[in-house]
Write a structure and sequence with these properties.
heterodimer, A: 206 residues, alpha+beta, 10-stranded mixed beta sheet, two-stranded antiparallel ribbon, B: mainly beta, Immunoglobulin-like, 10 strands, 14% helix, globular
């Protein structure tokens, strides 16, 4: 065999190897320092309709063009929700790259719409960071979104008239990419610095 | 002489009871007005040789203060009330975000970072211990 043919075959084999490695890498969730990145397995979210803290509709289209890190909870939650929102606020502060900061929005979705009005949500989320988005909606609309993200929650009340009750809910942060796809997950316990580093790498790369 | 002996005894018994439970870093997570709940955290260090059991907490700043624990159930975070909190002899119990905390309901005045709120711990032997908690951002 000619030397040039050997060279061509070798280069081709190398290319195939790289392509295969890239394909395997892309088609499996990638473990980040603080979470999981779904790569090309990211799934488009279903259509949904929520209301944001200013009373404006917030739909799947509202997610287009920006990265979103989303947490689900409720304002009457004294411990884990303020702690999680504080972590998200600290995370935003820890991102040095202003382009990454501009590309990323943090969102709190209340799964307790009977008590969490848009006005209350505004007061709540903007306390942690004025740029944070708060949203809620009718129970079936919230469920539509949470189901597609694997987020579970349960209102621990016996009847709709009961005013004092707690809500069990997933504590994960959900990452949605600028194509409105479910792109990653950060499970608790959360480290603001590690999530900031992961998101910076991801957003700078994509 | 007897008087001084008695006085000495009294002082030493006071200092023993004051040192039995050392409370460190007692703080309340600040939230904006209009939000009806606050969480309180602290470190409880029992330097005595017997268990200390907190059975109730009172405060004039809140309508009610309960002891709660956040725990994970079926992949969800839930809370359960604690009827009492035991700090075994020579151990430290940490109340921290995501675990045991005080659930402090309906602040009766506007609280902001730097403010203090007094609370009183009640123990199973009917004794009490008061402390100041500081509101932090």
């Amino acid at each position: 065999m000619k030397r040039s043919t050997i060279l061509i075959v070798s280069v081709l084999a190398l290319c195939v190897g790289f392509a295969l490695a890239w394909f395997i890498k892309q088609s499996q969730p990638v473990k980040l320092d603080a979470g999981l990145w779904f790569g090309d397995q990211a799934r488009l979210l279903p259509e949904f309709e929520l209301v944001d803290q200013n009373g404006q509709a917030f739909t799947r289209d509202s997610l287009e063009g920006q990265w979103h890190l989303v947490f689900f909870g409720y304002t009457h939650c004294p411990d884990i929700c303020p702690a999680s929102l504080q972590t998200m606020a600290d995370m935003v502060k820890a991102i040095d790259d202003s382009d990454v900061n501009k590309a990323l929005r943090v969102m709190f979705v209340s799964v307790d719409p009977d008590r969490d009005t848009p006005a209350l949500l505004k007061n709540y989320v903007e306390y942690f960071n004025p740029s944070f988005i708060g949203a809620t909606g009718a129970a079936e609309n919230i469920a539509q979104l949470t189901r597609s993200l694997g987020i579970a929650y349960f209102l621990e009340r016996d009847n709709p008239e009961q005013l004092s009750y707690e809500v069990s809910h997933s504590s994960a942060f959900v990452l949605i990419n600028p194509s409105a796809e479910f792109a990653g997950l950060f499970a608790a316990p959360h480290d603001s610095q590690a999530i900031a580093a992961d998101l910076t790498k991801l957003i700078e790369r994509y | 002489m007897k008087f001084f002996l008695l006085l000495g005894l009294l002082i030493s018994s006071f200092s023993v009871s004051a040192d039995a439970l050392v409370i460190k870093d007692a703080w309340i997570k600040n939230l904006p007005p209009g939000i009806p709940m606050r969480a309180g955290y602290m470190e409880l260090e029992n330097n005595s040789e017997k268990s200390l059991i907190i059975v109730a907490i009172e405060s004039e700043v809140f309508t009610q203060v309960d002891m709660h624990e956040t725990y994970e159930k079926d992949g969800m975070m839930s809370m359960r009330p604690l009827a009492s909190l035991t700090i075994a002899a020579g151990t430290t119990v940490e109340l921290a975000p995501g675990g045991i905390h005080l659930m402090m309901m309906q602040p009766q005045k506007t609280l902001k970072p730097g403010d203090r709120a007094a609370i009183t711990l009640q123990f199973d032997d009917a004794s009490t211990q008061s402390l100041q908690m500081i509101v932090k951002k």
